[in-house]
Structures are given as structure tokens and as C-alpha cells.
Amino acid sequence: MQGIGLLLVTNALDKGIPWLLRDAIDALVGGRLGAVARTAALVATLAISMAVVRTMSRTRVFNVGRDVEYELRNDLLAHLHRLGPSFFQRVPTGETMSRAINDLTQVRVMVGFGVLNIVNSIFAYTIALGCMLAMSPELTLWAVLPFPLLVLVARLMGKAMFSRSQASQEALGALSSRVQESLAGVRLVRAFGVEAEQEQLFEVANQRALEKNMSLVVLRGVMWPLLVGVASLGTFLVLFHGTAMVRSGTLSVGGLVAFLAYVESLKWPTMGLGYIMAVLQRGRASFLRVCEILDAEPDIKESQHAENPAGEGELRVQDLSYAYGERSVLSGVTFTAPANRSLAILGRTGSGKSTLAGLLARVVPTPTGHVFLDGDDLTELRIRGLRDTVGFAQQEPFLFSDTIARNIGYALPETDSPVAIERIRAAARAASVLDEIEDLPEGFATVVGERGVQLSGGQKQRIALARALLPQPRVLIMDDPLSAVDAKTEARILDALEAASKGRTVILVTHRVAAASRCDSIVVLDQGRVVEQGDHATLVGGGGFYAQLAARQRLEEELGAL
Hints:
Elements: H1 2-29, H2 33-82, H3 85-90, H4 93-135, H5 137-144, H6 147-184, H7 186-192, H8 195-248, H9 253-294, E1 315-324, E2 327-337, E3 342-347, H10 353-361, E4 371-373, E5 376-377, H11 383-389, E6 390-393, H12 404-408, H13 418-430, H14 434-439, H15 457-469, E7 475-479, H16 487-500, E8 505-510, H17 513-516, E9 521-526, E10 529-534, H18 536-542, H19 545-561
Parallel strand pairs: 3-8, 3-9, 6-7, 7-8
Antiparallel strand pairs: 1-2, 1-4, 4-5, 9-10
Helix pairs in contact: 1-2, 1-4, 1-9, 2-4, 4-5, 4-6, 4-9, 5-8, 6-8, 6-9, 8-9, 13-15, 18-19
């Protein structure tokens, strides 16, 4: 409000200058030079005051746009953290980044620059028209005759501007997505030697973005002179009719000059109407694109009566089924993982193991009434409390382009204190990766690169495992953490997991019988159904699916050794 008040003062000072100019010219025509000098000094004072107030008003109004951008960016990031897989499967990462950067910039310009000029134009028109009416209502009518035509042109141009602005932003988002994918998969691009093909795909997206943006530029180029031409009609009519009024003696020379000054003062807001309209329409299109993210519904919603988990960590699954669209992944899964015990979920690729692990950790939408933690429905627990209670190490570990210490200590508020460093080392030791980290030239200060590109697959998995172990959750779910390690490292990790499982519930998702055999109990999945349950000895003796899988893997190991 302070900025708007300063804008009002700015326009009042600005519109006072032509009024004084009228008196100065009339005094000059009458030969009163002393009055001309006094009026000139007063005009200079108003001009200096206007410059100071204008600067203050612009600073405050522009800051509103930056504050809105700041708040929207925070809200956008917080909401993105709540959204689930369905959103990110629908909207590519590059497109999301474009909305979070390019579109938010356009919103800031709309709120700051656009609002400033709209309010400034309202004040300019109101004060100028008031002064013009006070001088000559008849001449004011001639000055505003072109305005209906101006409004019609602006309305038609505004609709075209909005649609072209939206198309331009969408093309820019597609271009950002193409760049992001190419950079993320640059090693794959080089490995297959498809640089030329990727350049061609980028050229197509770049050309489309250029065409959409040039279409917008052309429209803006046409709109500007068109609006100026319509606005200039008012100046022509005032000059034509005002000259006749001066000749007839109904208007003084100073009055005509002052009136023309007021008309000219309205020309710039009128000429700027096209640019302001472009800013507003582009900002509006960008705001709608941002709102598509803010209005997206999270896959996982917290119950209004949610409570924090309480108990020792028993997980019970009752008749759980799950499907991706029409494709069934799990059907009627039932088992119990006792507290402070270990349970393996074993099955071949495509049996639904990873989906089941995600449902147990509620990182995908868990159906109500089918998964229970210490007797409480998983969907009735606070998400933040559930994340603290249930640790989850995913099958495809994600590492940030940061140091190893910060990747392992990601859940800590800070990673540089002696206590934090000791906890990070303990977690690395539990994941059987401490020795390899210390052998690196920079140890825990080693920067792993984007997605851990500097590390081997096994190292990445064990660092991700250490990150899951660090908060010391009551339940630890590991989705196939042994898929990218050799037999020696696998044995070390399993030894470490046996030590880490004391005092907590451990669920190990795996396709390897050797890993499952170390757990207290085993659930065997095949095509989304539980086909066997029991401990290793019982299942091997049963001669069923598990026994056949164990025999096959044992034969593969023997052949590999030969």
C-alpha cells in the first residue's frame, strides 16, 4: 500500500507541471517575466520531488513481485515434495524446472512491473482527465474520442497474446526437458555414439521454441505501433480543435499547450498498454502453468486424525492387492513380519517385490485397511512419523552431487559436528563401505558427482544403505540392496545387516536365495501372489518353488566358479 500511495503522489506531482506550464506561457505572452521565473523554479522543484518519490515507489512495488516469487517458489518446492509418482510420470523433470524458473520469473514481472504500470496508468488517466476537464470539457471530449477503438484493439490483441504466450512457455518447457534428459544420459549418448541424433532432436525442440517465441514477438511488434497510432488520433484532434478555440478566444495559448502536455502524458501509458498487456498475458499464462503443479493432488494424503507410530515395529499385511491401471501387480498378499525379527521377500524379476516394498514404506499409495504397523493402519499414521520409524533403501540408489558425508548424513540437520561425523562413520561401517571410503583420496569429503557417477554400482548401493541406517529406524526395508555387488561384498553387507538388525525389524527384498536364507522367515512371491512362507530349511525341504530356485542358483554359482 505504501508503494501505491507513493505512485499517487508521483502522478500528482507530474500532472501539476503542465498546470504550472499553462500559467508560465500565459505570463510570457503577457510580458510578466518575473512570474515566468517564479513558475520555472516551482516546476524544477516539482520535477526533483517527483524523481525522488518515483524511485521510492518503484522500489517498493517491484519488491512485491520479488516477495511473491519467493513465496511461490517455496510453496512450489514444498508441494513437489508431497507429489507422488503419478505426477512425475506425467510431467517431465525439465518441464517442471522450466515452470519453477522461467514461469515464476514471468509471474514476478507480472506482479511487480505489470501491477506498477497498471496502477500508475489508472492514476495517470484519472488525474490527467480531471485536469483536462477543469480546463475544457469540450476539448476533453475530442481527446477521448479514439478511446473506444483503443479498448477494442487492446481486447482483441490480448486474447491472441495469451494463447501465443502459453504456447511459447510450453515450447520452452519442452526444450528444457530435452536438455535435461540429454545431460542426464550423456554417458549413454557417448556409449552408443548417437550424438548426431541427439543434436537433431534438440534442433527440432529448439526450432519449435524459436517459432513460438517469434510468433509472440511479431504480435507484440504489430500491437505496439497499432496502439500508438490509435492513441495519436487524440493528439491530432486536440491540436485541430484547440487551435480553433485559441483563435476564438475561448482558450489561452498556455491552456492549449498545457492541454497538449496532458494528452502527451497519457500517450506513454497508452503506448505502454501493449507492452503491459504482453507482460500480463505472459504472466497469466505462466501463473496457470505454476498452478497446475500447485493444484496437483498428492498420491499420498495424510489422514485428518493421523497419529505418530508407537510400538516395537511389527508389520502385518492382510489381503493386499495393487494394480497400475488395469495391470494387476499384487493379489491377496498376506503375511506378518514380527517385531525385531528379519523377513525376506523373495521372487523373480517382475513378481511384484519392489511394489510391495514401496507399499510397506508408503512411498506409493498404500490401500487403506491392508497394511498395519503395530496394529495401526499405515494410512492412519502421520507421514513424518512414519518416515522416522520406517527406513527405506530403494533398489536404484539416488546420490546427490555432493560429498559422501553429506549423502550419508542427508537426514541430519548438519553433518560437520563431531557427533554427526561419528554417526556417519558408524552407518558407513554398518553398510560395509567404511574402508572403501577411507581409501579414497579425500575420504568422506569426496564429491560423488551427479547421481554418484564417480562411484561403482556397489558403492552407491552401500552408501544409500548407510543413509537408510543412519536414523536408526525401528523398521528397515531394503529393496534388493545386493543387486550390484560381488559375492564377497554381498557377504560383508549381509554380515553387517545381521548386526544392524538387532533391536529392529528388517525386511529384505531380494531375488537371491543366499541372502534370503539369513533371515528368520521368508515370503516367496510369484506373479504377485504369495506361493510359500517359512524359514529357509522348511522351504528347501518342501521341494516347492523356493527349493527349485535355490537349486538353480546353487548350480549357477558352481558353474560360475568353474
